[in-house]
Write a structure and sequence with these properties.
226 residues; alpha+beta; two-stranded antiparallel sheet; 29% helix; elongated
């Protein structure tokens, strides 16, 4: 498979979310020394950089046809990415903690398309078994809608339900809460000075503003009364 270097470099450093990222110690191919590299996992491609701020990766490992397993090495928390074939290279990596090693092993083991095919096949089998057994998915519960008047949700006129902690001997002389503001009357098709469709926005704003101010004054007077 041919890979374009510029496309790979752009994909490795783009702003899209990564599947995993962090420092790993990578064993050299020709020399047994370990080098600390910044690794980024995107899909089935494992990029490694010299530093997190590097603009281009040093290399990339295509995670297809490989296995991830723990190994004994000079470095602690080591694991290997092995490929099938006599001449295939084995990449030995080492994390900086036990938790980091477990996270990388899990992420790398699930990165290949072969693993995704197995997951999809298993889900298809489960779906076929559900359909054969006559177990449809549970229906979605509709959300409760408030009653509406004049196109607006109205205040609830029912008293609040008593909670479990409320005693049955609540005094009957409890003071009721404040009453909600009155609902505006139904809008007619015409205004005092002419039809609404021929009025300007300023005129409509002034007409409706007067009505809103009158309703608010009426509500404030009703609250002030004992």
């Amino acid at each position: 498979m041919k890979l374009n270097e510029r496309s790979l470099a752009f994909y490795a450093t783009c702003d899209a979310p990564v599947d995993n990222a962090g420092f790993l110690h990578k064993k050299g191919g020709r020399h047994p020394a370990y080098h600390r590299r910044w690794f980024v996992l995107r899909g089935n491609m494992l990029f490694y950089f010299e530093e997190p701020a590097s603009r281009e990766p040093v290399g990339v490992i295509i995670l297809e046809g490989c296995t991830v397993e723990l190994v004994e090495a000079a470095e602690e928390f080591a694991f290997a990415v092995r490929f099938a074939g006599a001449r295939a290279r084995t990449y030995v990596l080492a994390a900086e903690s036990q938790a980091a090693m477990e996270g990388w092993v899990k992420a790398l083991s699930r990165a290949s398309f072969d693993y995704l095919r197995l997951v999809v096949r298993e889900l298809e089998q489960q779906l076929a078994a559900m359909r054969a057994g006559g177990c449809p998915p549970p229906p979605r519960q509709p959300r409760a809608l408030l009653p509406k008047e004049n196109g607006c949700a109205v205040w609830s006129t029912e008293p609040p339900a008593a909670s479990a902690g409320t005693s049955a001997g609540t005094s009957a002389g409890a003071r009721p809460g404040p009453q909600p503001p009155p609902l505006p009357p139904r809008r007619r098709a015409s205004a005092p000075n002419g039809p609404l469709d021929s009025a300007s926005f300023v005129q409509l704003h002034e007409w409706y503003g007067q009505e809103v101010r009158a309703l608010r004054s009426q509500w404030l007077r009703s609250r002030a009364q004992p």
